Amino acid sequence: MVQRSSVGEVRSLRSLIVDALVILSVIAQSPRAGSKPVQGNRGDEYLALIEDSVQKLADKLAEIYPSECDADDPEPCGLCTQDECRPLNGSPVCANVTRNPRCNAYYPGCPSSIRVTRERSGLAYPRESIDALPDRAQTRTICRTQGLDATFMELFERNPHFADYYVGFPDGTRRSYPGREEADENSLYSCTSYDCRKRPWYNSAISNQNHLVILVDSRKVPLDPSFTESGDTLSLAKQYAKALLDTVYYEDRINVVPFDSNPKAKALKSSSVVVGFNDTDPQNHAELTGLRRKIDEILPAEDDVRLTSSNLTSGLQEALGLFAAAETADKMTKNVIVFTNGDILHDEALNETLDEISSSLVRLFIFSIKSSKSTDENLQILSALADRTRGIHVTLASTRNPLYQIRSYFGYQALMQKLSGRSMPFWTPAYADYYDIGKIITVTVPAFSTTVPTRFIGVAAIDVLYMEIGDIKNDFQRALYNRPSQKGVIDKMIFDSTRPYEDEFGDSCIDLTTDASAMAMCKTEKQIDPTQNFLDRLCCDNCAGSESKPRLWIYVVSIVSGVLILSLVGISVCVYVKRRSPAPKIETDSSLHDGSSQGILPRQDSGKAAKRMVNDNMQGGTPHRIHQTLSRLCVEKLPEPNAKL
To answer: Mind listing the UniProt keywords for this protein, alphabetically (predicted)?
Structure first.
């Protein structure tokens, strides 16, 4: 007879099966291949990781950005750059995120994801329409910063949570990683309107607490024929003034003073407006609405521009009064920006006022708008006035990209912030993302040239999405709150040792043609209207993203693997039992008796029966008794561990 397994052997088999099931469960619940860990670092470790990453990004930007012109430099744009305002090219993937407000509203109940490309970064630049080409300065930035992609990828892989990495530049361009499409026609702001110079992360990086007074020459003079657009100096000055309102930051102060030939000028506001922080729409400064409206209402001076000159002294004296009235005058940088047609009354009163400007630690920026008044004599006078205060004079000859035309002001702001001793990297308060992906907090570092340390290049930044760091959010916020920080201080020594400079590098370094501008940005590979079905593309086509699918495949593979494991366990049991079981005992003729009803062969048929049994097994007939017993053992229920055997 076949020997049965002992209780210990059965328990051993059961343990083997349980272990196999545990392994199967672990496989089924493991994260998808190549994914980042679900659990992030502790808050202080994550804070250190992000700050180290943004500093590395700023260092790389300073390294790859050229500081001198090279006549032998090859064509800068070897590859085109992905346009954030167009559908993604290449092989985009769907990154799983904790929450995506737009997609969660569009596809209720679906997993949160966002379509991105990890093959390259994307770029946005301000323009009037999606087909408008980047200007010369923007094209140069687009081409020169393609080398950041490798650094972007390296830093992104270090982060256990989804985050955006990007750099912004004085010409308004922003290169970001991972690349994604943002042509949402329903967004509060359009993709083509994105201008990094108006965003809180950019301005927080380059600006120490600032008090700015803008002087607008209200004497209306036609623009010089060299302008491609028609217009007058007053209209253009008002355009520049309103553009500057978009570049202020939290706790800055700002005011506007029109001036003409009259001896007394009056500010549009009795006291400078204190800028607040709008966390739901940080680009919208409601407190500046009245000031913006008053700028539009500035009327041309009634005096005859042919007979009189503008009285700059009156405007500067009004600005000095505004600075003195400010409660925090000694803690802020003080700057005056003048927009004029170029014809300024230069007398002794003006010289005395300029000396007072300098002794009050006020920096003077004079931007003359090229017109019929822009004679060589007038331009020389303006340059002399600026030099007297260690300021700067620049002639404006274009209406395109106005903030870039006055970049010397922003470069000076960044330099003063760098020298002030303010802690870096700098963290903004939490605010709503431009493209409505939720509340973010941004860490920023300004980048300066490695060969010309005073030359401001741009701002490196990383967004931390609070909803992506849920398990360490409180710990992270505590670490950020306890982080040592120091506000910058501008004293006389720093003020006297610095002055603005006219950065002509962006205009003269590379002679880029219109063809280069047209080739800088990639065209859409497929003929797709960027504004059609945008959310379907962004949200991974009904939540079936290419990175979400592998998770389903893992479950399928896990189930199949489990079945195979159980099959192997079953086979192992059978083999184990077979090897442990002795051969069946063949009874002799003397032990046989007539018991056919019980399956026992009669004595007289024993020889024939034995022979028939062997033949049947060899020819595929009735199985041998050991095979029958083994089959029953493999399919019948195993006895309970405590059952009596």
So the answer is: Membrane, Signal, Transmembrane, Transmembrane helix
